[in-house]
Design goal:
Helix content: 10-25%
Number of domains: 1
Structural class: alpha+beta
CATH class: Alpha Beta
Order of helices and strands: EEHEEEEEEEHE
CATH topology: Peptide Deformylase
Strand order of the largest sheet: 3-4-5-8-9
Largest sheet: 5 strands, antiparallel
Oligomer: single chain
């Protein structure tokens, strides 16, 4: 395995791991608004595909780190944003969390409005309504079933990423035709 260090003004030690089978995906592989893959429903991950999850998560992590440097945003990313058409979400706020085949088992009736952003169109904000709380059931990277009750910003974040798995972008959830603005 060859390790190449990439120097960036803001992110000095970004390492891309290269080998014959896999080249870690860079920011340029992030699908942008309008790419037809972003509107497709993803397939569940099969247990036999579990060995692939580690590389997919590494790609998601790498691109999210690059987005953080370039745009100062990014708490989670969904696999289809990199053209990986599987039901996989990677979140990294305080620590990395992998959601394999997530399912909402509860969505609150209480809703709230917010300006949503997306790595696939980082300069555009979209006003949407999201459920104030939810419960999600998912598999972790060891194929163990987990459940997590989320509220407020975490609830919103997971709903945004989950929508990606169903081919839904926040632009499609805009409250009305005036619910768009450029990031300041």
């Amino acid at each position: 395995m060859l390790v190449v260090a990439v120097v960036n003004d803001n992110f000095k030690n970004l390492h891309l791991q290269l080998n014959k089978e896999n080249i870690m995906k860079p920011l340029e592989d992030l699908l942008q608004l309008g790419n037809p893959l972003l509107y497709e429903v993803c397939e569940p991950i099969l247990q036999t595909e579990l060995p692939l999850v580690k590389d997919w998560v590494a790609d998601l992590h790498n691109v999210m780190q690059e987005i953080r440097v370039k745009y100062n945003l990014g708490r989670a990313i969904a696999a289809p944003q990199l053209g990986i058409m599987k039901r996989l979400i990677y979140m990294n706020i305080d620590k990395p969390i992998v959601f394999i085949n997530p399912e909402f088992t509860f969505l609150s009736e209480d809703m709230f409005e917010l300006w949503d952003d997306c790595m696939s169109f980082p300069n555009l904000l979209v006003k949407v309504k999201r459920h104030k709380s939810l419960t999600v059931k998912y598999l972790d990277e060891k194929w163990q079933t987990k459940e997590w009750k989320m509220t407020d910003d975490l609830s919103e974040l997971l709903q945004h990423e989950y929508d990606h798995l169903d081919g839904i972008l926040c632009t499609m959830r805009a409250i009305d035709e005036k619910s768009f603005k450029w990031r300041p």
